[in-house]
Amino acid sequence: MRPDPQTHAQTHVRVWDLPVRLFHWSIVFLLCLSWFSADQGYMRVHLVSGLTLLALLLFRIAWGLVGSTTARFRNFLHSPRRVAEYLKGLAGGDKIFYAGHNPAGGLMVVALIAVLLAQVATGLFANDGVRFSGPLALLVSEDVSTRLTGIHGLIFDLILLLVWCHVVAVGFYLLVKGDNLIWPMVTGKKHRSYLPAELNIVFTRLYIALLLLAVSAGIAAWVMIQGDL
Amino acid sequence: MAEGGKFDHLGLMNIQADTRRHFLGWGAGGLGAFFLNSTMAGAAPAGENAPLDFTRDPATPLSVLPPQFAAKVKRVIYLHMGGAPSQLELFDYKPVLARFHGHDCPESFVKGKRLAFIQGIPKLLGPMFPFHRAGKSGTWISDRLPHLEKSIDDLCVIKSMKTDQFNHAPAQLLVHTGDPRTGHASLGSWVTYGLGSENQNLPGFIVLISNGGTTANAGKPLWGSGFLPSVYQGVACRSAGEPVLYLDNPKSVSRAERRKVLDAVDEINQQTYRTFGNPETVTRIAQYEMAFRMQLEASDAMDIHREPAAVLERYGAEPGKTSYANNCLVARRLAERGVRYIQLYHWGWDSHGTPVDKGLNVGLVGRCRETDQPTAALLADLKARGLLEDTLVIWGGEFGRTPMWENRGGQEMEFIGRDHHPNCFSLWLAGGGIKRGISYGETDEMGYEIARNPVEVRDLHATILYLLGFDYRRLNYPYQGLDQKLTGVKPARIVSEILA
Amino acid sequence: MEDRAGLSGRLSAAAYFGCVALLTLAGAGLAMLARPAFAHGVLRTLGLETAPQAQSRSFYATRVAPLLETRCVSCHGARREKASLRLDSFAALLLGGKHGPVIRPGDVRNSELYIRISLPASDERAMPPSGKPPLTEDEKTVIRLWIADGASGALQTIAGAPPPVAEVKIPQDDPAAAQKQRAALAQSVRRLQARFPGTILYESRSSANLEVNASLLGSAFGDAELLALLPLQARITRLDLSGTAVTDTSAPVLAGMPALRSLRIGGSRMTQVTIAALRQARALKSLTIGSGQAGHGALAPLLEKHIAIYGGGDAP
Fold it and tell me: How far apart are CA C134 and CA C119, in angstroms?
């Protein structure tokens, strides 16, 4: 039986804005694309994929300052003590719900953004020893570029590790706690029973997101042009 | 000579250094530094290309400087056979090609290739003259060089030279300046820049030409100084009459009067230098002074009348004429007098088979007759005087000739000839530091491609500079934001297999 | 209303993390398989495996390894491991890379390494990749013969292998060391250079040896002038006295120069008296004389010492 839309509206609340959702799944796609293109040697695709990632990461950081309530860093970044407390509570079976990212999730978000930024940054200076080099590779000596390429390779392993942790965590919530975090990241809406009673989510206008995205894209484009000089 | 103003070498280098390349380099580097920790950014330039210091008092630009490391040779005599002598008729014996003489050439030889004059499918042309093994080393040589044959055990014949230029002017420029375009410094200029010249009364780089005017093919840029200071350019001397035109004083002017004129000109030039600070002015002063000293010494050096008759006969030299033989004898005299780089050009080897003079069966025969005896005499003479042990003698052209019979415009021709062939050519070396009596490199059985041990022109240059005591990467000169090298930007290989 | 927010928890935490652990181990195992070099490295560190080694005098060590070092290791070594392949050690070479082993001992045609280096330079998969010079015929032959003979780490010579090419070693510049060596005589050198301009030169920028070309001074240079050079005699390797006024009086001086390798006396006033005295010269390797300066008899003792004699023909 199809759910009654009106009832649905009463039971489900919008928690994730569109920019955050688009950002999340774009990253998933671009990570796969970057990995595949590097592996198969399609370096131009890898370059564009990496630069798009750069633009999106810059956007997300800006959005984390002026975006919707659940998007803002200050609403999900907690002290390490708080994170530890939360995890202990989770293990103990506490039923404390968060509208946006929970403390552990918040930590994961920051870790992933930081590591991805590092990956993009090292990638800009990397070279494959033969034909291809990142747009900023010529600004440093060959030795430095090679070292950064090595680091780029190591960070890739770290990304894989973090992504695995992230998937395991989301799986835990889904299969053990019964709290589906995936679908809300698609639709933006979560069932009331998995949300705290007091909700106060403010959504920032979409045009601001578009503005920030345009600036981020501009920066990424400028970086790309450096490589053509 | 009046003392000039102090030469602001450093100031000039500073001005010359601020090129567009440098501005862009600094600009981008500055931005990059925003992103990176300063400990990672900008490593020091690699030591292996660090330039050597060739600063000299500009009043004596040809003063001797020691080489970078112990040299095997002190001077070079380069015998360039202009027009490209046919290796298939002189040094590269191809018996299999002989068997296919007259057959159509394989399509792969011409398909997709740029050829100077051949069109369609030409016939294959076997060697026109018989070959045999000569000397103790058993090196192959044709019957066209009976005199040179006697010195075959002193030669190192390279049969696998290769170039990428198939026309005369750019190919000659590549061989002598390291770049097919004009504007680069010639080998002789680099050598005199790096080492100076032992005799301050003669130019350090002298050019002698026979069988052609001075403007054949690539002309004066072949011995030009390019971006190096102009004092290092080659001076083309004549072996008949005045060594350099207008060198001698006019009949009514005595040497003392000439001295007074020079002193006056000198003063004016010094004033110009003080006003504008252009180092070329100081060089010009030095060149006037050199010309003055040359008046005495050059005429003496180039005057082969003084040689005993036996020597003249050995070279086949005839005083008063312009000939390759005369030039070879002059070359030996210049070598004895401490001239650093002696370049001989003998034109007319372009055996296309068009006019009779350019046929393999006529023109080449003539060229061989003109050059064989004098070349052999020069080698023997240098050896007898103990000069060969520290001289490098080089003989060669600018590219090879095709194993195909040239059919200009697709027509069969009256005289036999071959077209230009950059893929492989032969060249020999003799003298200090070179292995004696060997052949290096091989071409395939048809003489079309190199089969073993290719030697690029820049590899030859690197080897020559090594024998003179220089790492080719460090004999460089900053110009247009690049540290220019004779060998250009591609890496070169010193051909260790031919070194003694 | 039906709870569309998600499934209610089905698994216990223990069961879930148990599955995760299994999956993680499986994944790690797959990763190890994908990087055999890493896997073997782990096994070897644990002592469960010993890496194959090549003997130091083997054909591999003397011919193959240096070749790989110059041509391949910059991208397939410690600095960079393209395609997870390292070619900087015998063990790594046999191990292979991301796509498996690159050498099949005894089977050249199926050895990926040989296939790649034999491809035409225009082929995308050619090694070294475009931009780097391809291996020469001789280098390819060395690798081919080595693989064909079983990719051994012990075999010392292989029939038919082309002779090794000596790399030219450009002498290292050490201006500081040269300065030190020159220091002892530096002042004398400067003084004598001022007295005889243009005649005394260091052999090279990195050497303290001296070359003297007195021929430029002609008859202005005689026995007295030669004596003036005595302070430098320990370092003089080449001396050109052609056309000078030096006589037989200087014979003992010349014979006594400890470092003199090359001497030219043609056109000077020296005769076979000097030539006889030169029998005592310690380091002399070459002598150039002028016409009529010596009969063959005078030269014999020098020829016995394998000193190269030039000249004696026409006058310069």
Answer: 9
